[in-house]
Amino acid sequence: MTNGENTAFVPIREFLVSRGFPGYIGYNSDSEVFTHILHYAVKGLNYPINYYKDIITPLKPTEIEKRADKDFAGHLKKSLRPLCIDGPNCVIGFTPDGTCFMVQDSKKLRPGVVGGKAGKYSLVSEECGLNRAVPDRDATKDIFPMRYDMVIIPPGAEEVKVWNQLQGWTTTMN
C-alpha cells in the first residue's frame, strides 16, 4: 500500500522488466513497482529487507561515507539507481513470511505512524487510525518514522524495530 505518487514509474518499470522475471509485467498502477523492487532486492538479490530503504531512497554521498557499510551502500546507490523512487511516498508492505514494514521517501511529505503492543501493532497513515486499531496501547511509545527510517515488525508482532539509514538499528519496542 502506498500513499503518494511515483513519477519515476516508467524508468523503474523498464529496469524491472529488463530483469526477465515473469512477474514483472502487466503494470496497472505506479504502486506496483514498490512490490517488485522489494521482490527484486530481497528474493532476486538476496539482500536483507532493510536495504530496501537504501535502494528506493539512497543517501547522499556525504551521508554514505559515515556508514560502517559505506562501500556496500555506495554500490547499492550506483548499481540500483534506476530503482530510486521520486516521492512523496509512504509505503506499507508485507512479505510472504509475515514481516510488515513502513518506509518513507526521503522528503517525508506523507504521514505515517506505528504503534501497539506485543502481538498487535498497527501501521497507519494517521494517529486517529492507530487510536481506533489499538486503543489500549501506550501512545507515548508510538513511532513516527522519519525520512531515514524503516519500521520493521517481524512475524508474530512481538516487537517493532526501526532501521535508520544513518545510525543502523535504533529502536526496538516490545
Describe it for me?
By secondary structure, this protein is of the alpha+beta class. The protein has a single domain (2-173), classed as 4-Layer Sandwich (Glutamine Phosphoribosylpyrophosphate, subunit 1, domain 1), CATH 3.60.20. The protein is built from six helices and eight strands; from the N terminus they run E-H-H-H-H-H-E-E-E-E-H-E-E-E. It has helices spanning 9-17, 32-44, 51-56, 61-64, 70-79, 127-133, and strands at residues 2-4, 89-94, 100-104, 113-117, 120-124, 149-153, 160-164, 168-173. The strands form two sheets. The chain has a six-stranded antiparallel β-sheet with strand order 1-2-3-6-7-8, with no helix packed on it. A hairpin with a 6-residue loop joins strand 6 (149-153) and strand 7. Helix 1 (9-17) packs parallel to helix 2 (32-44). The longest helix has 13 residues, at 32-44. The protein is globular, with a radius of gyration of 16 Å.
